[in-house]
Each structure stands twice: as C-alpha cells, then as structure tokens.
Amino acid sequence: MTETKLQDQKLWLTLFQIEALKKRLNLLTAQFGLFSTLAVIIAGTALIYLAALAMPPLAFLACALVVVASALVATWRVIRVMHHRWANLPHAAMLADSRAGLKGRLLTVLATADAQSHSVLWPYLIEDTYAHRREFEPARIEPRWVSRAIFAFTGVVFALVAIAFLLRYRRPGLGAVAVMAPSEVTADLNDLEIEPADPALQPNVHVYADAATLRQLQSKLADRGNQARTHDRWSRWMSSARNFAGALQDQVTGHKLFNLPPLHLKLTNRGDAGADPDHSRQASSTGSNNAPPGPGGNAGTAPNGSTAPSEAPQLAHNDTAPAVNPPNGSANPNSADPGAAGQGEGPSGIGGATHSGGTDPTHLFGPPQPQRLGADSFKITIDATPADEASAKGAPAYIPPKIQVPLNPEQAPDEPIARAEVPPEDQMTIKRVFER
Amino acid sequence: MTHPVEPNGLEPASLPDFIRTFRKVQAEVHKAIVGQEQAVEQLLTAFFAGGHVLIEGVPGTGKTTLVKTLGLALNLSFNRIQFTVDLMPADITGTRVILSGADGHREFSFQPGPIFCHLLLGDEINRATPKTQSALLEAMAELQVTSGGTTYPLAPPYFVMATLNPIEMEGTYPLPEAQLDRFLLKVRLAYPNEDDMVRIIAATTGAQESPIEPVFSAATAAREVERLKRLVREVMVAPAVERYAARMVRATQPENSRALGELKSPIHIDAVSRYVLFGSSPRGAQALILCGKVRALLDGRANVDFDDLDELAPAALEHRIMLNYAAHSDNIEPAQIIAEVVKTVRRTRD
Asked: Would you say A382 and A433 are in contact if contact means Cβ atoms under 8 Å apart?
C-alpha cells in the first residue's frame, strides 16, 4: 500500500514537471506571438509613413499595398508558428524527452498514466523516469523566460526611433526647397502642354493674362478636355486611385506635403503663332502627345477668368487644380530678369525662351545670341540615320555637323540653351531632321 | 512488488534478468562468431521478439555456424535442413509411415520431420521449390504442422533461420513475398574485416576450440526463453511511437508516399514513388515495434523510443518492399529506399 502511494507521488511529480514545462513553453509562444506581431505592425506602419512622406501618390499607394500585404502574410505566418509551437502535454513531454535525452520515457509515462491496467514494467518506468527528474526540470529544458522575438521587436523600435530622428533632422531641408521655388513664371500659351493635374495637390497657381490669351487658353483647355473624355476607363481608375492615394497620404502624414507658396503664372501669347491656325494645331497636338489623360484636363477648364472682359491683364485664379503646366524650358525661372521676361513678347522674342519648342522648324535658326558669361563650350551632336524615305537610295550616310555652342556657366537646368551659329550648308539638313 | 501471473502460469522475467541473459547468450555466440556484432544482436533481437530471421550473406561468412552456436548457447533443440531443388514438403514436415507392433498389428504413425525442433536452420532456402518453401509457412506463422489431416503443434520457442545465398542465383526460386513477409528481420552477414579475419583464422585453425557453454539447462531452457519473451511484450509503447511506426510502414507504399496518414501536409518520397512496386505490409510495423521493445529492454528502458524504430527500420523493412524494373536498371537497393523513408518520416515526429 505504501509502495503504491509512493509510486503515485512520483508519478504526480513527474506529471507536474511536464505541466510546468508546458506552461513555460506556452508563455514563450505567447510572447513570440505578441512581440512578432507588434514588430510587424510597427515596421509596416513606419514603412507606410515613410512612403507617404517620400513618394508620389500612386507610388505611395502601391508601396502601401505591398507593405500591408506583406504585414498580413507575416502576421499569418506568426499565427501559424504560434499554432505549431503551442504545446500540449504530449508535445511538452516529447520536447523534454528530446532535449534531456530521455528516450521517450516522459511521453510513455504521460500516455500510459491513465490506462486501466498497467504493464508489469510500469513501476519500473515510473521509478526510472523519476530518477531522471532533474534532467527534465522546466528550467533545464527551456531556460528562457523571454522569447527571442523581443530582439526583433526591440530592433524595430530602435530603427523607428532612428528614422524619426533623421526625419526631424531633415525636415527643414524640405521647407528650404519650397522657399527656393520660383514664385512667378512667365510662359507662352503656345508652348504650354496641358496635362491633368495631380489631384493630390491643392490648387496653388494664379494665372495672369490678357483677355485674348485667356480666351485662347480656355479654348485650349476645352480641346484638352474633349481629348481627355475620349480616353478609356483605365485612366479614370488611375485618377481615382491617385485621388484616393493623395487623400490617404494626407491622412497618414497629417499635413499637406507640398505646402508651397502660390505660383504666379503670367501667360503670354505670340501674335504670329496665335494667328496661324496651322501653327496652333501643331502646338496643340504636340502638347497632347505627352500629356496623360485624366480629370485634370477637365479641371483645367476652371480659369473662369478667361471669360472676363478683355481689358488689361486679368487674374485667372485656378480654384480647382493647376491645370496649366508649362513644359520644361518654356517657363523662365528668372522672371525678375526683364530681358528674359521680354523675350516671349516682341517679334524678336522668337528665340531664347521660346525656341525650345524645338519641334517647330521655322524657329530653328536665327541670329546667334551672345552669352552673358560664356567661357566654356560644349557640343551637340545630332545623329541622323538614313531611313527608307531618304532622298537618294545608296547615297552616303549623313554625317551630322558639330556645332559649337558657348556654355553659360550659370546655366539653370530649365533654362534654354542659347542659339548657336549653324553653318548654312547644314541648316537645311537639320531642318529636315526636325521636321521628321 | 508482485508481477501478475500470466494465464498459462508463466511469469515474465525481470528486466535485469533479460539484459543479463541476452548479453550472456551474445557472448557465447561470439565465441564462435568473430565480428558480426550487429548481425548477432539482430538475430537475438528477432529471437526474443518471437520472430524468424532471414540471413543473407555470401558463402563462408558463418551463417550456419551462427545458428548452430545459438542453439548450443540456448541449449535448445536444433535442426538443419539443406534446401535443394528435389526436396519435398514431406521431407521437412514429416510423413506417415506404417509401423508393425509386437503383436503384428500394423498402423500408420506420423514420423516428425526436421521441422520439429526449437531452432531450425533452412540453409539456402531459395534452392527449394515454392511448394517446399511454402511448407515452412504454416510452421513459421502458426507454430503447427498439418500432415495427413492431423495438426501437430510445435513446441515453443520456435525460431526459423533461413539463409539466402545472393550469388549463384541460377536455378533458384526467389522466395515469394508472402514468405518473405513472415521473417521478422533480414540480417546481412558481411565479409569480415582484416582484424576479424585474423581472429577467425586463429580461432578455427588451432588445436583447441572455445567450448560453448549453455546459458540455460536443457530442462528449463524453453521455459526461461518464454519468460523472457513475455517480458518483451510488457514493454510499453506510447501512441505517438505506434503512429510513427505505422507512418513509416505506410511511407514505403508507393500509393501512400505522397500523403502520409493524417498529416496535413503531404510528404512526397520520390524514391518510393519511382522505384517501389509494393511496400511493406502491416507485419513491418509489428516487426518494428516488437524488435523495438527488445532494444528498449537492452537499453534498460521499459518503453520504446522513436530512435529504436529508426535503427531497426533497415532490417525490418528492407525485405518487405519489392522494387520495380526502374530500380533494377538504376541500381537502386532497398536499403537506399528505406534510408530515404526513415529520413523523411523522422521529420514528422509528433
């Protein structure tokens, strides 16, 4: 009787140790799940926030979707690992057997403890297993109290703090860029490429022009709007996505990202270009080739001021979106320079800022312009390959001329290159190349 | 502590008795057999597990000596049958002959064949016809012989050791699967290494031979062996280990190698799918568990572990799988298949 009681006590102690080990394993598993999930969530949130700060709306939307999908997959994997690791008594016994080299003793004790009748070797098994009790103490089988996932969690938190510090350090730089942006731009209406505005951006352009120019702008916007309406559904979806991404970006960042000072756009209109219908059509079609469709085109009809009386230059305040975007090079950033501002207006203003229209061969050549501070020079090589429609089949290949252009050391990135002297014998060839 | 008495009045031996007896028999056998430690241990394992053994080895590696020495060490009756192509079933089971009494009365009497013994060595069993081979089936499986409509029981312990000569295969009759399946283990006798060879020469060419001392007396040998075999049956097996054995056997079956049992994620054993025609029968799982129990006792345990099954898998399963022509053309051996199965199934321990 006493022997049986002693045996029961040993069995109870053995089972108690297995139960304690199970609790410790499950505690670690719970910690793993908690820390891993938190790490995933924090890392995902930080990535989305960074993307909102640094990316344009559509890229931000794509990035956010990828991050959210990755976070979901990671969380699902964490849950699966937790489910796999979550220990019941047999699992704990097997783990202890494996780590303590007990060769299945604990598993067998556990499995046969509740049996109705026991083997003649049962007392031996109990005694043998109890003799190894120090080897399967929970602290020896699993010494850790804290899951290793805390390292991942801590690492993510540290990374987050570091990023926050860097962002705070870099924030004034973004403001400085905004301040440096030109506040007034003069552009010729004929050189404008009308593109849909980014819906994520707020209207921030004031357009000044005389009545005739505004009317022409209105007709151009209407033309662009008609073209935009003919575009497919995909474009509308893209615009909706852009809208959504912009709003989301604002929500994530908590402020308007591009909080730039308002831009004053002064529109001019060359008399000869405006009078020539062919030229207008050509300029319009050239602009529409590169302009992506979207609701911005419709929004571009917003300058209601164009219907105002024709006295004096008028302000066409764009209340909906900056539908009018001057192409690169057509806007003169140095609007304070009177010479540059005047280039687009008089008959002599055909060159300089306006000849970057480039595709108009009638304005290719003219008197060379003196460089203000020309010291160095660079070459432009125009490669033209003979095509099937060449004038003479089998004729020798055209060797493009090397044209020396003095380099302005203060050349701004968006400033047109000054016209250079072109040899008369090459003028026709270059003109043909541009015509194509 | 009192052990329950078995219904037939046989009380299981104790675990220390088992280990002591096993090691003693092992030592006696090694007096005559140099080296081949694993083969001897497997032979004794199968013997105490209550099964039969198929011994494969080239001539001269001590197959007959091994079996003969075992009989001497255990002090059990021992017979040897050389299987030839003209051997008839009655030659091994026995036959009815007419005997005349002192009073002139004549009657049929059954003359037991060499199969009636405790330890039977069937030498080169694959040289006999399938009909004669199958005469062993009943004896091996049911411990009885039927002749002339009368069934004669065989006295336990009954242990059949059949040898297979892997060379000179012309004119032989490969053992049918049903008969192969009845052997608990297949033991391979390899060529001895140089040191063992020197010891064999010294032990067998001298004037003196080491006498084999019986571990049991002739009167109690059979009973003692049965007690030890009963102890083997008392070894406990956790359900997870039983499931592991079942999973291992099912993994040898080509139709099951893709989805093992109730596993959520199927396991694909490419070697089994490509090269195995028929996998192991449930007897393979029985062999794994029974031999695992013997190994557990030898290790001083009262329970079977997963590792016991892993180590026994080659001997217990190799002869139970039938390879296809692709395996023969690719020179794939059953040992390679079983190794792959063990490696794969080991990952699925619960």
From this structure: yes
